[in-house]
Amino acid sequence: MNYFKDYRDHVGSKPEKFFKSTLFESGQILLGINCLEPGQEQAVNSHGGQDKFYFVLEGSGAFTVGDTEQSAGEGMTVWAPEGVDHGVRNVGDKRLVLLVG
């Protein structure tokens, strides 16, 4: 197994919806890359039994967690506890690249 990966090797795009790539997955964690082109979004949703985080690697977006919407840019982390609605929109003019778990 390759224990070392460069996220930039997993960046991509899809014109019809945001792009997802899995870096690592086990029974305890899924770690991936989500890429949203300008105007794309991950619709607000929630997960039972698991928390979620977004770490902004590139770009910026408008993140929703519960009743709060806030912008977050490079270097920021957004936390969504289990059962709490969350989503993200790329409102910028360049690709938004997120490390998600």
How is the topology of this model organized?
Elements: E1 19-25, E2 30-36, E3 41-45, E4 52-58, E5 60-65, E6 68-73, E7 77-80, E8 86-89, E9 96-100
Antiparallel strand pairs: 1-2, 2-9, 3-8, 4-7, 4-9, 5-6, 5-8
Description:
This protein has 101 residues and is mainly β. Helix content is 0%, strand content 50%. It has no helices and 9 strands. It has a 5-stranded antiparallel sheet, with no helix packed on it. The radius of gyration is 13 Å and the shape is globular. The two termini are 19 Å apart.
Keywords:
101 residues; globular; 4-stranded antiparallel sheet; mainly beta
Distance between the termini: 19 Å
Mean model confidence by pLDDT: 96
Please trace the helix and strand order, writing H or E for each element. EEEEEEEEE
What is the strand content?
over 45%
The number of helical elements comes to 0
Radius of gyration: 13 Å
Morphology? globular
Oligomer, anyone?
single chain
Largest sheet: 5 strands, antiparallel
In short:
The protein has 101 residues and is mainly β. It has strands at 19-25, 30-36, 41-45, 52-58, 60-65, 68-73, 77-80, 86-89, 96-100.
